[in-house]
Amino acid sequence: DEVWVTSKGTADSLRNMGYNGDFVVMPNGIDLPVGKVSQGKIDQIKKELHIQEDIPVFMFVGRLMWYKNIRLILESLAEVKAKGKKFKMLFLGIGKDEKGIKHLVRKLGLKDDVIFVGKILDRDYLKTYYGVADLLLFPSIFDTNGLVVREASSCLVPSLLVEGSCAAEGIVDMETGFLCKEDKNDMADKIISIMDNKKLLEKVGKKASTDIYLSWEDSVRNAFERYKVVIENYKNKNKKTL
Length: 242
Known about the structure:
By secondary structure, the protein is of the alpha/beta class. The protein has nine helices and eight strands. The strands form two sheets. The chain has a six-stranded parallel beta sheet with strand order 5-4-3-6-7-8, sandwiched between helices. It has a two-stranded parallel sheet with strand order 1-2. α3 packs across α7. The two termini are 18 Å apart. The relative contact order is 0.16. The model has no long low-confidence stretch (mean pLDDT 94).
């Protein structure tokens, strides 16, 4: 009776497959509440991972698969390192390409800069890791509605995304997130410029937590209200055919 998509980009995929009907964008919500993680919890994670206090921390959350554009992340970070910048990159997740990804990390000379945390199922513990990060790197052009972007925003952490991707839908560059081209040099330059402007980073993180955050409760409420419309349209359609 009605077609829902999680983003406009998803609708484009349906069009490419031959669907020409109407659709309604119904984005997913997340189950992490808005709010900063306590400094004590952040310090504990940094201590466990041997992360110095003054070093920027980047993070990726998701399946360790090449199609998530992880190669672009690593090649960009290699450029950042080549320009003399220090950082720590955390990968949260597992996947069939993990071995190859770790091989590329060593090949690019990033072994001391990258930490593979593994899969974290405990939601409170995951929120703590988001709190540790300064910036989420999520250049995927595969995902239709990257929940991790909203999860990061719940901790006032902005994301760096590829402009034009579904994951970047609704993100305003330098306001609710950061956008770059799907190019290692452009991404590297963007990372450096972001980390050189801590005030902007904090400002964008705060705005992301209010403008792009969507709780699971609100998402379900939106769906519930839309169901009423679908039911009413169905009833009216049947009345016309009688």
